[in-house]
Structures
1.
Amino acid sequence: MKSATPKMLHALGGRSMLGHALVAADELGPERIAVVVRHERDLVAAHALQVAPTALVVDQDEVYGTGRAVQCALDALDATVHAARAAELSHVDDVHDEHVDGGEHPLGDGVDGSVVVLASDVPLLDGATLAELVAAHHTDANAVTILTTVVDDATGYGRIVRQQGTGDVLHIVEHAEATAEQLEIREINSGVYVFDAAVLRDGLARVGSDNSQGEVYLTDVVALAREAGGTVRAVVADDPMTVEGVNDRVQLAVLRAELNRRVLDDWMRAGVTVVDPATTWVDVDVELAPDVTLLPGTQLHGATVVATGATIGPDTTLTDVEVGEGATVVRTHGSLSVIGAGASVGPFAYLRPNTVLGDKGKIGTFVETKNAEIGAGSKVPHLSYVGDATIGEGTNIGAASVTVNYDGVAKHRTVIGSHARTGADNMFVAPVTVGDGAYTAAGSIITRDVPAGALGVSRAQQKNVEGWVERRRPDTAAADAAARSLGTSPDGLGAQARRELAEHNALTGAIPVVPDEDAGASSSTESA
């Protein structure tokens, strides 16, 4: 991957590749899940436990190969079984002594039944496919059951060598070990297996690393199982993409697009309108109700939930946002927020974490919110910042308003009551409260509480300096317009216009014009 991030932690559909594997495994209802780690061990282990807190994290030692990885996992799983059985026995010391003296392990071999093995870099593999594989394993009483698929180009994959007539699997040959004839085989090993635990334990004890790569191949267990008289069969996945692996970012992008296509197909068949699937991205954990409409350029991430009748987009990105029934969200970026039923957001709104907009509320154009509760029917329509604030019901916030919440050390809260009306260009210097039904005047800086029903005003008295433009900005378009409006030019022309007309007449011999003295021009005379 050429990345500081371990391969299995790269994400698609809002979930890491390891996360996809763990979710698929968990859908089988297993007794225990073991995750084998090695490269970037601490990062991978922490993430695995975040996704599956009860998983058993197992370290692979310095011996390479898939077989060795599974052997480490099986040893750890056996140890957990032994520990659990020992705890059930009251004569633990006697058990230990008997084991030391030799003979069969008094606690048994360890895990029994079916052991499913899968890789963390096959992200489109789902629980339903695994369940089909396990069902076939049990139905046929196989020693090993392999998930395979057929591809056009099998380069790099292990080939499935079948027995003529029965179709049973004789063995799996790695690409590096294959003969010219075997390289023509198009059925490949996906790296997903179901083993009988006893068969797996016996095979791993006998397999070695005598091959060109010097690794312990799990595939060698398949041949050993057959040599021991076990049945080895394969289940073919009809869609090769289901078992497609990821080894670089190109493959990751291909599977990301395929996963998104599948997700959108499922939602559209469930009653969601996706106007442009090519530009719409929906993560696997997003929940959409019937009659939701997703317009072009929409991205829904994380645990976003959208209720029926809501319209999202165009050009909207929501992460972990709850959208109520019938709401509209247009050209908006939001995260960790709640949008009430019938509410309206955008265009060009920014909802930061802990924004809660009540039913039929409005967050309008170029509005940013954070840690804000905006009540039902309340509106913040234009060009405003509402942070660390509580706004009641039915209140209107004037354009260009700001809750000034930070004093350089700590954040403070602004509280504006219900059915209040705040003027445009207001600064609310927190902590401050505006009561129910109160008004604030435009241009006010509110630094003290405004009681319910009161008018809050805080601004300097206006002073007009008459004639300032004509005196201080003469010969400008503004001065001309002012002169015309005030009637200080008898001919209705401003100073600059009269001067230009006089100059024109002097050149052309037209009727003389005497400019106003303030224009600073000399008189012209008729030439003839």
2.
Amino acid sequence: MKLGFGKIRDALKSGAEKNTGEEKKERKEEELEPDRIGEVTMKTKTSEQKSEDASKTESKNEPENEPEKEPMIPADRTGATKTGLIFFPAFDWAISPTHPEREERLLYTRDQIFEEGLMDLPQIAEYKPRLADFKDIARVHFCIPDIEAQATTPHRISVGSCLVLADALMRGEVKNAFALVRPPGHHAMTVAHGNRGFCNINNEAILVEYLRKKYGIRRIAIVDTDVHHGDGTQEIFYNDPDVLFISFHQDGRTIFPGSGFVNELGGPKALARTINIPLPPGTPDKGILYVLDTLVLPILEDFKPELVLNSAGQDNHFSDPLANMRFSAQGYAKLNEKLAPDMAVLEGGYAIQSALPYVNTGIILAMAGLDYSCVKEPDFRPGMFVQAARDRQVLEEIVATQLENWKNRDRLVEAEVAKHGDFYRRKKQIFYDTDMIQEFQEETIRMCPDCQGYVTIDSQAHRSINDTRIFGVSVPIYACDRCQAEAREEYEKRLTYPEYEYVYLQDKKADEYREYNRRTKQETSY
């Protein structure tokens, strides 16, 4: 059933007001003295947690490296026939009235899919958006100074839409799903000081952690097809061997964010679980589909993920104003048909008239298993773009190199782990192009023999007016008990350090998240 966009907006507005009131009840702020921080425990629970707790008894023989709470069991989807779809254009959010990432970006797509009657097809199941909880965001991000500062209502609806479709997928209501939403998110990293690459929070990463917590999904593959390297998603899962991140994008030497090279393979325990494919500018359908057939699909078949997610950026299109690629709507539809993702989430794409309506229509039809051969841009002619011989050679070399890395991944991990002691450290500089923030980070990973180890991040952001320094501690969902205890001790210790304005705890194993403001001496728990 269709719901007019004015009604959607009104419903979401009232829902946002309602949820904002409920959110205040779900979280608790308390003024703390440093010597009793360790006594603080989770103050409140969501209604979902309360119902789960009431129906479960606590196990005393819980094995290590498993979530503490029993997840829900995903339904069998073999009989599902529909494609789930949510359309949320975020009418009230834009970086500026003339910015490429503004409300008009999806309006032509809206007109196209409604005029073509796609929402009325029996193969399409339309779902309504909802707000994501603060806790969903806290599972992934250290938001500076807090979640409300970085995640506006449109951001929460954008990622909440992804979670709605995830639930529909896991309940077996749909065979696959496409979140046609904005704002995008794949440039947002673990630490969020502001907007970079048009992204504040990472929709795909929040979706992954939600699936892990609620449904126990462990092995997930993310294929990022945006023209810009998905550096935020890569950074978030760089040390996670259970998440395979594959990104093909225009060569970072020629486009933002200047990363995504073949040698970026992952952290010591997750080498070759990051596969980057920097494409020469001007690569057409034939080149991208060659990479898909010879590299991406063989690796996915070998990895055997429980779910395949697509960061569905559409700015590889030949008419996109922010890039220099030569992909077509037919190429995107064919890619989607071959990749067959369980779920796609819209990322970039800024040719609002000449590309997005056609590309989105092609992807929807391909996901629904319908004929997309009639979807063509008015100015596209078959054969108008040809792969240069030199560029084809570049692609062949990249495919050969990354297949070799994948083949030797276990040996690479063993050799790299042997180089480090108890901790692995790396320093990073991150530039926020939208908000003009220069961030300096030191990331430390506990090289635990029993799990992937906890992570700490010391981050300092230089702004034009003032600087902010924070310290974050992150415990993976499958951390061992020892790493969990060490990480929590590290959090409590850092609360007394005067150089940090904010200190964060992200305990995914306990599903508990805290942020401490040294100035106000208040700790917020989610």
